[in-house]
From TrEMBL:
GO terms for molecular function: peptidyl-prolyl cis-trans isomerase activity. The lineage of its organism: Bacteria, Pseudomonadati, Pseudomonadota, Gammaproteobacteria, Steroidobacterales. This is PpiC domain-containing protein. Pfam families: Rotamase_2 (PF13145). It comes from Steroidobacter agaridevorans. Residues 136-252 form the PpiC domain.
Length: 288
């Protein structure tokens, strides 16, 4: 619930939830590489059946792409970019290789209709041949330095938004913030939202790059009319919280586990890639 703003009196009854500063790209999560993504993996039975005449041919076509994009958009609220779509394709291909290997090894016995279980049975066999890397402090430290963005707390921004009732055209918002800054009574009422500890990436996701740049360069304590990807907003920057570099010694345990997970994931990927060499991979009609 938002408070009501009238004149120059602005009070808040709600505080927007802060977004954690740590942000890890989903494509880098070790376990995600082998997670089955809803319709992406359960909606391709007809495709598999159509390739039954050539068990060593794997074809990824527009149908699979469409299902992947639909699953991603349902989970993320947006369409995947080119890099994310490429990662989704790789997930599908890896799982298809594991599925074929599982069938070849008879892992579908008593479980013929459940593709997910066949894939995970095949993956468990791949995992049985992976080896946990021995701890190497120097290697872990070097990996930490290369991946600092995963652990450093970025610069964050505290700000307020006056949510105007009714139309929020550029002229209306500019008139509103002008009245607030001059101490006069605006002609429209508004609710107040307060945001704390929002990093740059979150500002871009929520409002757009142009807005993030404008807010970050605005003087603290002054209301501004700023354009977002969904329209004009009345915003006031309250404070900038400095970035905090991560301390390896404090995070040694967490970093070591992340490093181990990444190396184990690389072993899995390499093992699946080796299995994939026996198959003819075709993407959009083009042999890879």
């Amino acid at each position: 619930m938002s408070s009501v703003l009238s004149g120059s009196e602005l009070s808040s009854t709600s505080n927007a939830t802060a977004v954690p500063a740590k942000r890890v790209k989903w494509t880098r999560e070790p376990l995600f590489h082998f997670i089955l993504i809803g319709a992406l993996l359960f909606g391709v039975d007809s495709l598999i059946a159509g390739q039954a005449d050539d068990p060593n041919r794997i074809e990824l076509d527009r149908q699979v792409d469409a299902e992947a994009q639909q699953a991603f958009e349902a989970a993320r609220g947006r369409k995947p970019d080119a890099a994310e779509l490429k990662a989704l394709r790789q997930v599908w291909l890896d799982n298809e290789v594991l599925y074929r290997e599982g069938l070849a090894l008879g892992l579908d016995k008593g479980d013929k209709s459940i593709r997910e279980r066949v894939i995970f049975k095949a993956l468990s066999m791949v995992d049985s041949n992976t080896k946990r890397p021995a701890f190497d402090d120097k290697a872990v430290r070097e990996w930490f330095e290369k991946n600092r963005a995963r652990y450093d707390i970025p610069q964050r921004f505290n700000f307020q938004e006056a949510v105007l009732s009714g139309e929020a055209s550029e002229a209306t918002v500019r008139s509103f913030v002008s009245a607030l800054n001059s101490g006069t009574t605006p002609e429209v009422q508004a609710g107040l939202r307060v945001f704390t500890d929002r990093p740059h990436a979150n500002l871009v996701d929520s409002y757009g790059e142009e807005f993030a740049t404008a807010l970050e360069s605005a003087p603290a304590g002054e209301w501004r009319a700023l354009q977002t990807k969904s329209g004009w907003r009345a915003m006031r920057l309250d404070a900038v919280v400095p970035a905090e570099p991560a301390d390896y010694e404090q995070l040694r345990g967490v970093v070591t586990q992340d490093w181990t997970d990444v190396l184990m994931s690389e072993q899995r990927s390499a093992a699946v890639a080796a299995l994939a060499k026996k198959y003819t991979i075709v993407i959009d009609g083009v042999k890879q």
